Amino acid sequence: MERLGERLEAVDLRPTEASVLVFILNNPGISQSEIGRILAIAGANMTPMIARLDGRGLLKRTQVDGRTFSLALTANGLKIARAAYGAMTMLEEDLLGLLPAGDRKAFAEMLLTLLDSIETLSRPSRAGRRGPDRAQT
Fold first, then answer.
1. Which of 10, 26, 32, 85 is deepest in the core (most CB within 10 A)?
2. What are 118-137's pLDDT values in tens digits?
3. Residue 58 pLDDT greater than 90, yes or no
4. 105, 82, 66, 87: which is closest to 25 by C-alpha?
5. CA-to-CA dists, residue 23 to 5, 77, 104, 133, angstroms
6. pTM for this structure?
7. pLDDT for the residue numbered 123
């Protein structure tokens, strides 16, 4: 993460801010609360971070209803998000380069399986609990 932090200093972003901008880049109009839920950022941390990014002119918030805001990048935010995405991609390539070439595909497949499992566990179950359905048969 230190390497990523160094690369993001060029665009004056913290790694979490970069993740949020890249997420908005790939999901324009997503709500602030949905990004917080997906990236596991507490509301108490998400609100001031979005305010900082908005204050820097990197994103714009549009009120959807009483407490829900959709987020989109400004022209400058688009430029910065693309630079952050490039920094993240370079780090991924550096890390994958540490693996033998023959292991990279298997590693990528295992990561995707892990991400799918995490996503499944983070979905509310039918009973309103987080995690897989634990109904007994």
1. 32
2. 777 766 655 544 444 444 43
3. yes
4. 82
5. 17, 12, 25, 28
6. 0.75
7. 65
Position 10 confidence tier, pLDDT thresholds 50, 70, 90:
confident
Please give the Cα distance from 131 to 46 (Å, whole number): 23
68 and 131 both lie in a single domain: no
Q: Which contiguous run of DSSP H or E holds residue 83?
A: helix 75-96
Total of domains in the chain: 2
- On whether the CB atoms of residues 131 and 43 are closer than 8 A, the answer is no
Residues 89 and 122 in one domain: no
For 7, 12, 98, 104, the CA distances from 90, given in Å and listed in that order, are 9, 17, 13, 15
Q: Give 78-91 pLDDT, tens digit per residue.
A: 999 999 999 999 98
Structural domain containing residue 113: 100-137
Opening angle at CA 61, ends 60 and 64, nearest 5:
145
Nearest Cα residue to 99 out of 87, 83, 111, 88: 111
- Domain shared by 106 and 117, yes or no: yes
